[in-house]
Amino acid sequence: MEQDHQPFPYEFEEMTQEEKDENKRLYNYPKIDLIRMGPKGYVMPRAYKEQAESIYNLPIRPSDIYVASYQRAGTTLTQELVWLLANDCDFKTALEVPITHRYPFLEIFMFYIEWKKDRLANIHEVEESKREHLINAMQVMTQPVMEKLASMPSPRYIKTHLPMCCLNPTIVDTAKVVYVARDPRDIAVSSYHHARLFVVFDFAGTFKEFWNLFKNNRFPMTPYLEHVKEAWNLRHHPNMLFLFYEELTKDLKTSINRVADFLGKKVTEEQMARLCDHLSFENFKNNKSVNYEGLREFGMMTKDEVFIRKGKAGGWRDYFDEEMSQQAEKWIEDNLKDTDLRFPPTK
Ligand code: A3P
């Protein structure tokens, strides 16, 4: 079905000089360049702006399945679960084909356009046997979204960390969306490690400094709680399934059944046992199709951090001092007071 082209509804704004200076100090990656978008002031890499309208108008197919989240909410776990259920538990393919090939990451280009330019300018530094592989990978990562998705066969599985307001407004009326959310304190800890892991951030500050960026809406795709609320407000739509990381990890079987119901699939006892095993943290850590370790050979990661890291709900307690804990509690309360959204308690 033809969908009408809509102008992108949000304005972009520069960050303040003070914010730009702080970013220069806090990240080792010299090309961090962030702007704000729309009335909520979502923080975006500047490169997003070029494709914002294309993404907003991306034709949606009824067979599409989007896995959406703020980063570090359990996206990879949710993607793998959704893909396996939708593909009749085809574990063989899941183990053979990296999740990045099964699910294009909608907005990945915005983090890698500048990085690609530098890598290409210095391609002689890359081992000759690896150059072609790297060039192909960079090409896929930075390919215009519209082009990349148009050529995909149906059904398409798509990963995004964009807030719902950036996606085609017809998305939930047309396709299926599974959104996963997580306690903001664990998101902050996990995002801190993620920002240290990827060279396009190479975060150099302390956790406390990261937490301040996160809660003051200065980190990409924040304000986090607005991101979650946008999806929460759609949770009763029959094409939207809203999950919490805390529930997925506490009671995986119930979550598997919820996702199966949502996708109209039945799970046998044997499949259930295998799914639980395949999706366990220990197996994920060692599963090359989901642990992102393959990106290391492209020089995209620093050496002391990993993508599949701790896999625990409530781990933030090891990072927050008393003052930060109280601050966080008040921040969450203030930001959720106009909604019935509550994160499941963690110990
Ligand atoms: P931690 O950094 O707290 O360990 P995303 O996929 O959205 O980037 O989320 C990554 C977070 O989910 C990381 O959290 C990661 O360790 C955790 N995770 C990934 N796979 C998991 C699994 N199978 N079980 C539990 N947690 C998992």
Write the layout of secondary structure elements.
Layout: E1 12-14, H1 17-26, E2 34-37, E3 42-45, H2 48-56, E4 65-69, H3 75-86, H4 91-96, H5 99-102, H6 109-121, H7 128-142, H8 145-150, E5 157-160, H9 171-174, E6 176-181, H10 184-197, H11 207-215, H12 224-232, E7 240-244, H13 245-250, H14 252-263, H15 269-278, H16 281-286, H17 322-336
Parallel strand pairs: 4-5, 4-6, 6-7
Antiparallel strand pairs: 1-2, 2-3
Protein name: Estrogen sulfotransferase-like
Family: Belongs to the sulfotransferase 1 family.
Organism: Spodoptera litura
Structure notes:
Keywords: Transferase. The protein is globular and about 55 Å long. A hairpin with a 4-residue loop joins strand 2 (34-37) and strand 3. The mean pLDDT is 97. It is of the alpha/beta class. It has helices at 17-26, 48-56, 75-86, 91-96, 99-102, 109-121, 128-142, 145-150, 171-174, 184-197, 207-215, 224-232, 245-250, 252-263, 269-278, 281-286, 322-336; strands at residues 12-14, 34-37, 42-45, 65-69, 157-160, 176-181, 240-244. It has a single domain (16-336), classed as Rossmann fold, CATH 3.40.50.300. The chain contains 17 helices and seven strands. Helix content is 46%, strand content 9%. Bound molecules: adenosine-3'-5'-diphosphate. Adenosine-3'-5'-diphosphate (A3P) binds next to helix 3, helix 10 and helix 16.
What keywords describe this structure?
347 residues, alpha/beta, Rossmann fold, four-stranded parallel beta sheet, 7 strands, 46% helix, globular, binds adenosine-3'-5'-diphosphate
